[in-house]
Input
Amino acid sequence: MKYNFDTLSNRENTSCVKYDLRQTIFGKRDVIPLWVADMDFETPDFIRDAIMKRAAHPVYGYTFRDVDYYQPIIEWMLSHHDWKIQKDDIIFCPGVVPALNLAVLAFTQPGDKIIIQPPVYHPFFSAVRDHDRELVFNQLIRKEDKYTINFELLEEQAKNAVMLILCNPHNPVGRCWDQSELEMIAKICLKHHVLVLSDEIHADLVMPEHKHRVFATLSPEAAEIAITAHAPSKTFNLAGLATSSVIISDPDRRSVFSRFIERLHLNMGNLFGNVASTAAYSQGEPWRLQLIGYLHNNIDLTAAFIKDNIPGLEMIMPEATYMIWLDFRKFMVDDETLKHKLIHEAGLGLNPGTTFGPGGEGFMRMNIACPRSTLEIALSRLQTIFR
Ligand SMILES: Cc1ncc(COP(=O)(O)O)c(C=O)c1O
Output
């Protein structure tokens, strides 16, 4: 194995949200941080080398993105997702959350209904509400140990909606939506002229027995209603570099979006994000494969530990992402007590399920993208309070 994911990297005092904001978020500065979605693993050496090489040149002036930036993205999409795109389909955006907000502003009007599928990544709520659009909840349904989509309700809601923000794969419930589910979404959205804003930031973090399907690849018709957001940030631990892509096949819609970005002068981006993206997409596959293996083992370890040691606690097995969705409802404690126990008795900093909207009550989201030694300590602390 070439890369060592067991290394403990001290992230404190690096203006790091996950560690340095613990006092602010949890009221306790020494919780084990298993919350915000970045990884405790070092960003791979080939990316750091590329950044350092560029940083060695002493001028950090305005830069542009040329073919060296776009070609690795194009090749990655083809080799990983059977998605044939061209340079002109790709619009740079300084982050996926900004892309969601900009797409809502560019393609909908105040008062328009936008569907989201809670429990879901919380910035989906603000991307709609902050711009005076109306949220419509197509709440996911739990069927035994898996979440599915309420298609009947979606069909009803789509009649009056203009957009669906799809989380593909889904954070926090970890679903890697399968082909038939995505086809059903496409069918409904095409029938009712609903745009699909597909957040695919976790597309390259899919567990070995599953396969990510890009919504826009389902059919030429699906591609016409799709706006896809993708980024190297989750996979290669680059979130601080704010670099992502919005990919739109429909030329009219694409020009609306790129004019929007240009008018706000967001197209410049940052020099080091460009360099990192190129290194990630052109050299990143061996690292990514090893990362998936490590995350998969962390997921299995967590599942086995909980099954053997914490009866009553249920874990939803993620098919993708490094987030684990934990169901504490059998312990019959309210959300405030649950939060308090985790922070103050177990010393653990997790995301309360209620952050992700309806359906999150009694749940917690745990980030397992950390060295195994950290995870083992966290699990044994969990056991001490919930066994
Ligand atoms: C579904 C999803 N979209 C977007 C983001 C963040 O994207 P960015 O940092 O590029 O704004 C996250 C981070 O957790 C996420 O889970």
The mean pLDDT is 97. The longest helix spans residues 285-309. The chain is about 40% helix and 15% strand. The pocket of pyridoxal-5'-phosphate is lined by residues 37, 95-97, 121, 167, 171, 199, 201, 231, 233, 239, 244 (CB under 6 Å).
